[in-house]
Amino acid sequence: MKQLIDYPFEIKPLSNEDGGGFLISYPDFAECISDGETVGEAIANGADALQATIAALKANKLPVPQPGSGGVASGKFVARVPKTVHAQLTMRAKSEGVSLNALVLTFIAQGLGASRRSVSS
User: Fold this and answer.
1) Which of 3, 25, 56, 69 has the smallest number of CB atoms closer than 10 Å to its CB?
2) How high is the pLDDT of residue 98?
3) What's the half-sphere exposure (Cβ side, CA atoms, 13 Å) at 80?
């Protein structure tokens, strides 16, 4: 049986602009974060948030990730790029007759392949 203590977490200090204190997040649960004035308070608040997240997943009959699994990748993410890059990508996609999404996915796949080849060389 999974216990809350088995789930890895990350703690990062928050800037004064963000209110100070500490932010806790759980790599296995992208949506589960909390904070606290001290590290101890952040950990306690994080445990409460994690317990509520797991309860919500179970209540909705959704899978609960195993500790250390890194969570479930949805296959979707948002990336902000400069307007000029967005315009260039849009024009390139149009000229190649593909969607912007397909073009960017191709570039990412090519980049991952190139980085994998350079690591194994």
Assistant:
1) 3
2) 93
3) 0
Residue 110 CA neighbour count, 13 Å, CB half: 6
Q: Break the chain down into helix, strand, coil percent, rounded to 5.
A: 50, 15, 35
CB 10 within 8 A of CB 24: yes
Q: How far apart are CA 44 and CA 79, in angstroms?
A: 32
Instruction: Give residue-wise pLDDT tens across range 4-14.
Output: 888 899 999 99
pLDDT at 1: 54
Q: What is the pLDDT of residues 22-66, one digit of tens each?
A: 999 998 888 889 999 999 999 999 999 999 999 999 999 988 888
Is 83 buried (19+), middle (13-18) or exposed (0-12) by CB count in 10 A? exposed
Q: Is 17 exposed, middle or buried (0-12, 13-18, 19+ CB in 10 A)?
A: exposed
Distance in angstroms (rounded) separating the CA atoms of residues 83 and 67: 39
Q: What angle do CA 108, 111, 115 make, to 5 degrees?
A: 140
